[in-house]
Structure formats: structure tokens, C-alpha cells
Design brief:
InterPro entries: Bact_solute-bd_prot1 (IPR050490), SBP (IPR006059)
Number of helices: 18
Structural class: alpha+beta
Distance between the termini: 21 Å
Protein name: Raffinose/stachyose/melibiose transport system substrate-binding protein
Shape: globular
Strand order of the largest sheet: 1-3-2-4-13-7
Pfam family, one: SBP_bac_1
Oligomer: single chain
Keywords: Signal
Strand content: 5-15%
Number of strands: 14
């Protein structure tokens, strides 16, 4: 996915220090870095600190940092990385359709030797390594290392405790409790679920519903091509029909089809909706932004969208690979991992000390439980190039009731099956 659309592109060039040898013909005193995290997000906060530490440990080198939009990189990376404008290091989306495709096209650097040398393979659990390694067909889970994730993420249920208390509702830890709560709110004239239908959030909700009827074998068949996928099986059918039913019952506004992820998150933070089903990447912003009501979060029941976070990758044409590797090492260090956790992110390196904010303890522990129990199901748009737009469009049709669930599932099946023929699996 994965997953989120942040602020529109802006460029900031930060003077930072560094030493270390550059490689290639680029300026050995400049590390060109791109990422798409908002400055107030957990990753944005942690990586700003990583840049400062890079400055302290690499005198004389500067970081030319450019903040990009998630969808901007999603759509243009193959073209940019195949040009002379490629950065030395960038945050990139993990999965077969993104990092896997670029690795297959020869646009990313194989960093397997450095991963072993620097011990990153020891820091990342096998579950977190899945999205960093790709085989010759660009399929994740085995083969060479083409990136390093330094945070983790997963989808959960956020809820407004005050609004739940007003309706006499308990926290929604089961599908039954969730749907009962939404029915109560709808009956009181309140649209219960904040949804962003023009970007990733809506199709993640559809996938979450589908996952309630899925297991690891189902996920592997869909995500890793280990067996035949039936888009009209019990899981997909339940997901699509239940989502359509939620729209029909008023749990999801038909206007949500035109709402983006940022507007969705803001509406929840402003107390306009009692429930938001989305990713842990919102957590830090919720902690910082919500002042007028009490809120909480609970894990999605069963398997859930989630994985290691998006990765640092080094383009094949990068001019300063050594500096890029040094920067990755800093982001994997305990101080930066702790900084990320305190800002509301899910670290990949556990800390010996508890976080200052009690809610962050639950955030990390919930992820550890999901990972240990093998309940991370990746993201719905990963299996095929261009699949993100297909999922957005298909789910919008459920929101507007312009297509039946079976038609939407046909729409999801076609590009998946076409891609499968090209993968050689």
C-alpha cells in the first residue's frame, strides 16, 4: 500500500553535515533525500532528528531534502528513477506492485550484503522482512533485499469515547459490537464512520471486512500468488456485500466517495464522526491534535492490513550510496526508533524503556501481538501494478451504489488475473 496521502509536494532544502564517501559522479557532499511524511507525523519527526544526527556524524555533507506527496511518488517513481533526476535515497511503497516492480525492472539497488553487514536482518523479524525482499519476478517474501523499513504499521479501529458514552456503547472489539454501535449512531441521526473514498481509506475498509473471513493461506494466495484466487469466494463476497450494506444503512455517507484521506482524518479529529477505521500512522497526530474529547483505539478483530512500513530504497542510479546507507543506519538506531515511538509511530527496534504516553504502549503492544500471531495481511492494492487506482474506483462504486458487489468484484479480478499471467506464476 500501501497507503496514505499527505500534504501536497513542497520542497525544503536543509543544510546538514556529513562525511563519508560518496559513490558515482554526483556531489559527494550532498545526500539527495525524498520522503512523503508530514512534518508532524511520527516518521516526519523521527527523520528530522535523523537528519540532525547525520549532520553531527558527517561534517561537511548536506542533505538536500524534498518532501513529496504519497500519490506523487506512487505515480511518477518509475519514470523519475529511470532518469538523471533520481535521489540518492527515498521512501518508497512496499509490495509487488511498487517496490517489487521496480526491483524487477532493475531500478533499485540490491543491498543484501549491506543488510547482513550492518545487522539490519537481525533487527527485523521475519514478518517485517517480507516486504523488503523480492525474487526475480518482483514477488515479495524471498530473494534479495531492495529496501529497509524502519517503522511498522497496521489498520485498527479509532473511536470517540465521548460519543460512545453518550449512546451507552462499549468499545467495539468485535464485528458485532462495531455494527451494533454503527446502527445505534445511525438511528440517532449520526453518520458513524469517517471514510475517505477518493483515496486509500475506503478500499482498506472493504479489505478489512474481507479479512474477517480469511486466513494466512488466503492472504498468501492473494498477495504472494501461492495458489488460485477466487474473487467471488466467501471472503470477498462478504467484504463487498457488507460494505454495500453499510452504505445502504447510512453507516457510510454517499458523499464519502469524494473525500480524501486528509479530510477524513480531520473530520474524526474534529469530532464529527464517532468511528474511523484506518492506520496506525494517524496515531501521533491524534495524540497531538485532539483536545476536545476522549478517544481510544482497539485492534481490528481477526487479520488486519499491516506490515513493516514503507521503505528506504536506494535507486540504481544513486550517486551517493554510501551516504544513503549511513542515513538508513541512523534511522535504525535506538535513539531514532525511540523518537519515532514517542511521536506515535510503531518502531521496529524495541526499547528497554516504556513510552511516556501510556496509549503508545498499547499501540506497540497491539502490533507485537498481531505480528506474533501472524495476523498481518499486507494491503489490498499490492498484488498488481496500477491496482491502487482500480481499488479506489471499484470501492467508490460501492459508496455511490453505481455497481453491485458482484460487479465490483469482477472489476477487481480482471487486472489481478492479467498481472498474474505476466508474473509467470
Amino acid at each position: 500500500m500501501s497507503k496514505r496521502v499527505l500534504a501536497a509536494a513542497m520542497v525544503a532544502v536543509l543544510a546538514v553535515a556529513g562525511c563519508g564517501s560518496g559513490s558515482g559522479s554526483g556531489d559527494p557532499k550532498t545526500l539527495k533525500l525524498w520522503h512523503y511524511e508530514a512534518p508532524d507525523s511520527a516518521m516526519g519527526v523521527a527523520w528530522a532528528e535523523a537528519i540532525k544526527q547525520f549532520e553531527a556524524s558527517h561534517p561537511g555533507v548536506k542533505v538536500a531534502f524534498e518532501e513529496k506527496g504519497f500519490e506523487q511518488i506512487q505515480k511518477t517513481a518509475p519514470m523519475v528513477l529511470n532518469s538523471g533526476d533520481a535521489p540518492d535515497i527515498l521512501e518508497y511503497n512496499k509490495g509487488n506492485a511498487t517496490a517489487g516492480l521496480l526491483s524487477k525492472q532493475g531500478l533499485l539497488t540490491d543491498i543484501s550484503e549491506e543488510v547482513s553487514k550492518r545487522g539490519w536482518d537481525k533487527q527485523l523479524t521475519p514478518a517485517l522482512q517480507t516486504t523488503a525482499r523480492y525474487d526475480e519476478n518482483g514477488v515479495m517474501g524471498s530473494g534479495n533485499w531492495y529496501g529497509v523499513p524502519n517503522y511498522a504499521e497496521y489498520v485498527k479501529i479509532f473511536y470517540n469515547k465521548d460519543m460512545f458514552a453518550q449512546q451507552g456503547l462499549e468499545e467495539p472489539r468485535t464485528i458485532e459490537q462495531l455494527t451494533a454501535a454503527m446502527a445505534k449512531f445511525a438511528g440517532a441521526g449520526v453518520t458513524p464512520l469517517a471514510v475517505g473514498g477518493s483515496e486509500y481509506p475506503a478500499h482498506q475498509v472493504l479489505y478489512q471486512l474481507t479479512l474477517t473471513k480469511a486466513d494466512r493461506g488466503w492472504v498468501d494466495r492473494y498477495q504472494r500468488y501461492t495458489g488460485k484466487v477466487d474473487f467471488h469466494d466467501a471472503a470477498w463476497t462478504y467484504g463487498a456485500t457488507t460494505f454495500a450494506d453499510w452504505v445502504r444503512k447510512g453507516y457510510v455517507s454517499k458523499d464519502a466517495a469524494g473525500v480524501d484521506a486528509e479530510a477524513m482524518g480531520m473530520s474524526f479529529m474534529q469530532g464529527k464522526y464517532p468511528i474511523m477505521i484506518s492506520g496506525s500512522w494517524w496515531y501521533g497526530r491524534l495524540v497531538q491534535s485532539i483536545k476536545d474529547f476522549q478517544w481510544g483505539s482497539v485492534p481490528w478483530p481477526g487479520m488486519t492490513s499491516g506490515s513493516a512500513g514503507n521503505m528506504w530504497v536506494i535507486p540504481k542510479g544513486a550517486k551517493n550510496r554510501d551516504l544513503a546507507l549511513d542515513f538508513i543506519a541512523i534511522t535504525m538506531s535506538q535513539p531514532i526508533q525511540d523518537k519515532l515511538r514517542e511521536a506515535g509511530g510503531v518502531p521496529v527496534v524495541n526499547s528497554p524503556t516504556p513510552p511516556a504516553e501510556p496509549r503508545l504502549k498499547d499501540l506497540v503492544e497491539d502490533f507485537t501481538t498481531l505480528s506474533t500471531q501472524d495476523k498481518l495481511a499486507f494491503y489490498p492494492d499490492w498484488p498488481a501494478p496500477g491496482y491502487y487506482d482500480v481499488h479506489v474506483s471499484a470501492t467508490q462504486k460501492l459508496i455511490t451504489s453505481s455497481a453491485q458487489p458482484s460487479q465490483v468484484l469482477d472489476e477487481l479480478a480482471k487486472p489481478y488475473e492479467e498481472n498474474l499471467a505476466n508474473v509467470g506464476k
